[in-house]
Design a protein that fits this description.
The protein has 48 residues and is mostly helical. The protein has one domain. Helix content is 79%, strand content 0%. The longest helix is centred in the middle third of the chain and has 38 residues. The protein is rod-shaped. Keywords: Membrane, Transmembrane, Transmembrane helix.
Length: 48
């Protein structure tokens, strides 16, 4: 009978890595949207 404990641990680590990547990308997207708002207000253009 194969040892499924190692597969469970590997799957959990992979899931944690993917969640952290998604969280980091989400923070970057929010930051870029805020920068876009600031730049558009500096240029005195209406924000769409």
């Amino acid at each position: 009978m194969p040892n499924y404990g190692n597969y469970i641990v590997a799957a959990a680590i992979l899931l944690i890595i993917l969640i952290s990547i998604q969280y980091s990308l989400n923070k970057i997207i929010v930051l870029l949207k805020e920068m876009k708002e600031i730049l558009l207000t500096i240029q005195n253009k209406p924000y769409k």
